[in-house]
């Protein structure tokens, strides 16, 4: 009887760990999807395919700042496996990875404070978006 309880406990612990791993992966994927959605709106404005909208820009920058703070903790060592496009470099160069998010957050906050019109938007926003491409090249599997 004790053995059955022990085995059931171990199995429950394994299932709990698998759920927690999937949950953290799902959380970071949602934040990244949200960032991508905001980036598409911003990109359209930068390319003059959509009118400049300060409220949308501020919403995007606040979301970027939030995700920059949240994202590093959503890559624990036990989340390397699973349905993820994160490269091993995330964990091999964790301090560098975390530094990219810190810079992304700083740039988003600086842009939030300085963007007041279309001209300042076009000058400042590319600095923020550059962080995305730099990080994706090193830490994310290519999409395609």
TrEMBL record:
Keywords for this protein: Electron transport, Heme, Iron, Metal-binding, Signal, Transport
Origin: domain of life: Bacteria
Signal peptide: 1-22
The UniProt record lists the keyword Metal-binding: yes
This protein's name: Cytochrome c
């Amino acid at each position: 009887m004790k053995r059955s309880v022990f085995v059931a406990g171990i199995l429950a612990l394994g299932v709990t760990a698998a759920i927690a791993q999937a949950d953290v992966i799902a959380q970071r994927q949602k934040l990244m999807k949200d960032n991508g959605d905001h980036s598409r709106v911003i990109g359209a404005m930068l390319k003059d395919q959509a009118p400049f909208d300060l409220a949308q820009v501020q919403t995007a920058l606040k979301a970027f700042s939030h995700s920059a703070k949240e994202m590093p903790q959503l890559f624990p060592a036990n989340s390397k496996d699973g349905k993820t496009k994160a490269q091993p470099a995330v964990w091999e160069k964790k301090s560098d990875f975390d530094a990219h998010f810190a810079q992304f957050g700083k740039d988003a906050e600086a842009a939030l404070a300085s963007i007041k019109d279309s001209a300042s938007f076009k000058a400042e926003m590319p600095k923020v978006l550059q962080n995305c491409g730099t990080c994706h090249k090193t830490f994310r599997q290519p999409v395609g």
